[in-house]
Structure formats: C-alpha cells, structure tokens
Design goal:
alpha+beta; Fumarylacetoacetate hydrolase, domain 2; eight-stranded mixed sheet; about 25% helix; Hydratase; 2-oxopent-4-enoate hydratase activity; Hydratase-Decarb/MhpD_sf; Fumarylacetoacetase_C_sf; signal
Length: about 280
Amino acid sequence: MPKPIRSAVSLAFLSLLASAGSAIADCPSDQVMADLAKNILTATPVTAPTVATPEDALCAQDKLVQILAQEWGAPSGYKAGLTSKPAQDAFQASGPVRGVLYADMMLESGAKLPAQFAALPRFESDLILVVADPAINEAKTPAEVLAHLSAIHPFIELPDLVVSDPKTLTPLSITAINVGARMGVLGDAIPVQGSDLSPDVLAQMQVSVSDESGQKLANAPGAAVLGNPLNAVLWLRDSGVRFKQGDLVSVGSFGPLLVPKAGQTVTVRYTGLPKDPTISVSFE
C-alpha cells in the first residue's frame, strides 16, 4: 500500500502553526500514534498528542495516516481545514490547516449511520474539487485553479474531533490528528467543462444546511471559504502540497461544525451551482 510522503512546508504555514505551539518539541513516538489510531478506530475519546512545532504536527499526521490508511484506504487527496471564520473562531486559529483524505471514506448521498459514528462526531457543509492535471500546481488565481479541475462534488464532511474536550484542540493538535478526517457524503460530480461554473459562481453560491423539519441550521456563501473555495487549492499548494491528476480536495467548512443527533436527517443545498444540487445524510 502506498505511503503518504511528507512535503516541505512553506514558511507561512510554519509560522501560522508555530504561533499555537508550546515549549516542548518532538514527533510523537510510533507507539503513541498507534495507540491514538486504535482509539480513533474504536471511537474512543482521547487526549490529543503533544506537539509543539509544525514539523512535529505533520510528522504525527504522517504516522497516523499510514496506520489508518490500512483500514480506510490509501491517501486520495487533501483537505483544508479551518478555512472559514466560524471554524477558525471555534479553535482560536488565525488561518487554515491541512490534512489527508482516504480512498474509502466516501459515502453516497442518503447514507445512514449512527449519530455517534466517531469519538467526537461532527458534520459540516463542504465541497470536493477533483484535480484534472498537475499543471494546477502552477495556478496563481481561482480562475487558473478552475481551469485545471475536472469536476466538483457537493460534500458533507463527517469529521471526528477525537479528543475528550474539543476546547483543548489547537491548530497544531488538529494537524496531528489529520484534521479529523474520517468519513464524508459525496454528491454527484458536476463536470467543469461545458458547465456554467466560474469563480464568481462558486463565490456567490449559497450553501444551506437544513434538518428533517426544514429548519435551517446554517447558511453561508461560497466566499465564506477563504474568499472563494478555489483558494483552498492555492493555500494547500503554498503549504507544500503537490497535486497530481485525480486528487480530491476538500475545501473546508462553509459554516460551523455541527453536532449530529439521533433521528436527524441533514440536507445541504448549493443554490447557484448548476441545478442547485442537494445531498443528505441521516443519523440513527
């Protein structure tokens, strides 16, 4: 099984993460990360691993991804986390963080799963971008990013915050736990070629989250993610990621992370995208 390779991280990314660090630095041991992975797989809340530098946070993430990939599939792309103001405010972060997606984490729209599907389960409205070719690594603007995408997908991410007390999470520890990547509901592909997609369409779309009664739980424009969801690709690239054809990119939450409840059915609508698509997930 292919193992993820850790990329060099940009100075800006290092500076951002370092601002959340404390005084002791070390990459957590293999045993510490194996124990963490075991608890994640059994949905058991834990204390986040101690990391004090960006390098150690990414080192811990690499170890965790290699273990969990044995259960959840090989790395299939990347996720940008803490890309909206509500998400950043929740964890006192000044900017995004990055993680890795797994090949077998995707569920179909309409999926049903336990409300307690993880140690500390959450759900959020998101979007998946599909990389068409590696020339995307040279993109400088949202329009250039879009030109090197093959499709976009509506996406409800189902992350696991892992820890017993989410108030203890920092950008460094969130990076170490792979930004909570666990599962997600993937909607139908919207091809980029021949569509009405544009950077303006993606920035101006309205992403709304409603429950089974029609009550709106969250609503935000596409611009809530870094000014334009396509900017998530530019941020990930600048943080050290090198994309290849077929990579999936989760742009991050358009609104707050929400707590699933038993008996709840959540629907996310993307008003302004072609055909105003919706996707849903039910919690039991």
